[in-house]
Amino acid sequence: MRTVILFIALMLIWLLWSGLYTPLLISLGVASCLLVVWLARQFQSIDHESVPVHLGLSVLTYWAWLLKEIIVSSIEVSRIILSPKLRIQPQFITVTSRARSDVGQVIFGNSITLTPGTMTTSINESGDVTVHALTQNSANGVLQGPMNQKVALLDRSEQHA
């Protein structure tokens, strides 16, 4: 099942990024995706982390929410940079991830890093995430914002927390 989903995802991404739909190029795309899936199976690297089908379609709503957060944070960081007073308060904070699986913790850390004004610097085995925040507002967003809960619900590990 994961093998088929991996092939479909690779093929869709290839088609989207290629933009050329001639029979020769499509057949080369199919061949290259099949080669990648075959190699992944040979290395036994198709598992719940590399192809997280357990996240289901709820990942699409999370991505839409995250995109909105990235845009809002981009505007905020742009205002800070363009301000003549440059009011920043760089700081390191630590927040405990509510997601319990490795996949959920990585999604949480990557989501923080994708959001302008914050960057994940480390995640330890107990789920503590160290974050560099550009401003106090960014730090408060990581500590009290809904991202941690949304990732935990996406990870479906909230019930085990």
Task: Give structural notes.
The model is unreliable at 157-161 (pLDDT under 50). This protein is 58% helix and 11% strand. It has 6 helices and 3 strands, in the order αααβαββαα. It has 2 domains: 2-42; 56-160, no CATH class. With 161 residues, it is mainly α. It is globular, with a radius of gyration of 19 Å.
Which short descriptors sum up this protein?
mainly alpha; 2 domains; three-stranded antiparallel sheet
Write the SSE topology:
Elements: H1 2-18, H2 23-42, H3 58-82, E1 91-96, H4 102-114, E2 118-123, E3 128-133, H5 136-144, H6 147-155
Antiparallel strand pairs: 1-3, 2-3
Write a brief structural summary.
The protein is mainly α and 161 residues long. The chain is 58% helix and 11% strand.
Uncertain runs are: 157-161
H/E series: HHHEHEEHH
- Report the principal-axis shape: globular
Main sheet record: 3 strands, antiparallel
The secondary-structure class comes to: mainly alpha
As a whole number of angstroms, the C-alpha radius of gyration is: 19 Å
Strand order of the largest sheet: 1-3-2
On the 0 to 100 scale, the average pLDDT is 88
Question: What is the count of helical runs?
Answer: 6
The total beta strand count reads 3
Helicity level: 55-70%
Query: What number of structural domains do the residues give?
Result: 2
Which strand-content bin applies to the residues?
A: 5-15%
